[in-house]
Design a protein that fits this description.
It is globular and about 40 Å long. A hairpin with a 2-residue loop joins strand 2 and strand 3. The longest helix is centred in the middle third of the chain and has 15 residues. The chain has a single domain, classed as Gcn5-related N-acetyltransferase (GNAT) (Aminopeptidase, 3-Layer(aba) Sandwich), CATH 3.40.630. By secondary structure, the protein is of the alpha+beta class. The protein has four helices and seven strands; from the N terminus they run βααβββαβαββ. The protein has a seven-stranded mixed β-sheet, sandwiched between helices.
Length: about 150
């Protein structure tokens, strides 16, 4: 048997020095990425900002807010060269663990209907569609709706 096992990334809190690499990942992954200022503001106000590392390289990031009994996943991104290798699932599961540890009852997120990979991931992890936010995301010609998903604990 010749099995190749993918190394498991590590997870740690994002620090201001990570924002440069986070921006590289963000801008390569999305046509309408978050700005440096958004990430800096998330860190400044104390949102739960995380990075995934593999062999010393930052490969992804996530931003989570927790208020009362709800959490909201604002951003989850894996670097383009590391996508479709299970790292997004790893990061999502870690975020779910953090949300549960925060005592929340529900975790919410928005996703573009055109982001088929993310839709498949969220559904496979037990998220259910609970609504739509019309014209939520910027687009090249028109704005795109957001599908709102929830995971109840």
């Amino acid at each position: 048997m010749n099995a190749c096992v993918e190394p498991r990334p590590g997870l740690r809190r994002m620090v201001p020095a990570d924002v440069g690499r986070v921006m590289e990942i963000e801008t390569a992954a999305y046509p309408f990425p978050w700005t440096r200022g958004i990430f800096q503001d998330c860190l400044r106000v104390g949102y739960a900002c995380w990075v995934a590392e593999l062999d010393g390289d930052l490969i992804g990031h996530a931003v989570l807010t927790i208020a009362a009994d709800e959490a909201h996943l604002l951003n989850l991104t894996i670097g383009v060269q590391h996508q479709r290798r299970g790292f997004g699932r790893f990061l999502l599961r870690e975020i779910i663990t953090q949300a549960r540890a925060g005592g929340v009852e529900s975790l919410f997120l928005e996703v573009r209907p055109s982001n088929r990979g993310a839709l498949q991931l969220y559904r496979s992890e037990g998220f259910t569609l609970v609504g739509t936010r019309p014209r939520y995301y910027p687009g090249h010609k028109e704005r795109e709706d957001a599908l709102v998903f929830s995971l109840r604990f």
